[in-house]
C-alpha cells in the first residue's frame, strides 16, 4: 500500500483551482498507454467507454468484478495515477460501496468518481426519481471514505452530481448536494453538463472544494475554464465515442465504396507496437 499511498497523494496534489488537472479519459490498456505517452499526469477511466469495451451498456449494467478487472489492467499498464469511474458504486447499499472501494484499491487505482443518479430498475422502484436523496448519497460517500481511510490510502473521492445532466436541479440544489457530499468525505465535486462561463464560475465559487467539469466540442478551452477556477477537466466518454465513430466510418467506407481513406492518419504500426511492448 506504500506505493499506492504515494500515488494517491500525488493525484490529490494535481487538483489546483486555476491550474486544473486535465484528463483524457481512457477505457482500456491501449488507450491508457496512449494517453500517458501523450503527456498526461494521470489517467481517468470512462465508465461508459469501459462498459462498451466489455460489451455492456452504460448506466449500472456492468458488474463490479468485470469493471474492476479492467481497471486493474489499466492501472498495471501505466505509471501515472489512475482514477476509476465506478458509476454509482457497483453496489445496492453503502456497505457495498465500501466493498467496491476496497476492490478499487486492490486494482491499483487511487481515485474514484461516484454518481448520485439512479438508473433502470432502481430508478423505477423509486417512482422514476432521477437522483438519490442527499442523505442516501452522503451515506454512500461516507462509506467510500471510511473504506479508503481504513486501508491507509488517501483515495480522492470525486462526488459526481447529475442535477444538470438529468434535469433534476438548479444551481442552488447542486451547491446543497456538493456541501453535503464534501461534509460526508468527498474530496472534490464533479458537475457534468454545464460549460457556460457564468454557471461554471458560480459553481467554482460556490463549491468548497475542487470543481471538475466535463468538456467537449463547443465548450470553453482549458485556458478559459482554468480562469474560471476549475480544478479538474475531463472529457467523459468523448474520446471513446470519437474512436468508435472512426470505426464505423472506416467500416462503412470499406463495405460501401471499397476504399480506405478513413484509415489515413492512424497511429503508425511500429510506434504503437513499440509503445505497448515497453514495460510499465
Automatic annotation (TrEMBL):
Keywords linked to the UniProt accession: Lyase, Pyruvate
InterPro entries noted in UniProt: ICL/PEPM, Pyrv/PenolPyrv_kinase-like_dom, Pyrv_kinase-like_dom_sf
Q: Which domain of life is it from?
A: Bacteria
Q: Does the keyword Repeat apply?
A: no
**GO MF annotation: an example:** lyase activity
**CDD domains per UniProt:** ICL_PEPM
Q: What is the name attached to this protein's record?
A: Isocitrate lyase/phosphoenolpyruvate mutase family protein
Q: Name one Pfam family in it.
A: PEP_mutase
Organism (species): Streptomyces liliifuscus
Amino acid at each position: 500500500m506504500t506505493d499506492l499511498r504515494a500515488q494517491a497523494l500525488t493525484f490529490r496534489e494535481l487538483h489546483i483551482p486555476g491550474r486544473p488537472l486535465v484528463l483524457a479519459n481512457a477505457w482500456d490498456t491501449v488507450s491508457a498507454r496512449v494517453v500517458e505517452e501523450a503527456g498526461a499526469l494521470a489517467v481517468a477511466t470512462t465508465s461508459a467507454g469501459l462498459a462498451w469495451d466489455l460489451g455492456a451498456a452504460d448506466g449500472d449494467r456492468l458488474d463490479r468484478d468485470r469493471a474492476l478487472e479492467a481497471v486493474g489492467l489499466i492501472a498495471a499498464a501505466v505509471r501515472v495515477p489512475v482514477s476509476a469511474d465506478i458509476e454509482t458504486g457497483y453496489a445496492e447499499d453503502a456497505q457495498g460501496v465500501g466493498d467496491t472501494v476496497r476492490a478499487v484499491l486492490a486494482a491499483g487505482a487511487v481515485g474514484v468518481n461516484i454518481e448520485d443518479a439512479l438508473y433502470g430498475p432502481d430508478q423505477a422502484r423509486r417512482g422514476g426519481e432521477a437522483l438519490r436523496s442527499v442523505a442516501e448519497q452522503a451515506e454512500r460517500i461516507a462509506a467510500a471514505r471510511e473504506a479508503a481511510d481504513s486501508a491507509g490510502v488517501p483515495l480522492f473521492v470525486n462526488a459526481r452530481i447529475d442535477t444538470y445532466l438529468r434535469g433534476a436541479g438548479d444551481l442552488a440544489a447542486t451547491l446543497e448536494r456538493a456541501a453535503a457530499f464534501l461534509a460526508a468525505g468527498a474530496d472534490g465535486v464533479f458537475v457534468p453538463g454545464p460549460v457556460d462561463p457564468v454557471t461554471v464560475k458560480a459553481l467554482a465559487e460556490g463549491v468548497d472544494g475542487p470543481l471538475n467539469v466535463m468538456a467537449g466540442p463547443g465548450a470553453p478551452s482549458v485556458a478559459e475554464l482554468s480562469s474560471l477556477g476549475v480544478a479538474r477537466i475531463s472529457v467523459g466518454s468523448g474520446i471513446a465515442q470519437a474512436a468508435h465513430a472512426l470505426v464505423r466510418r472506416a467500416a462503412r467506407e470499406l463495405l460501401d465504396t471499397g476504399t480506405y481513406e478513413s484509415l489515413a492518419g492512424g497511429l503508425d504500426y511500429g510506434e504503437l507496437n513499440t509503445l505497448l511492448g515497453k514495460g510499465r
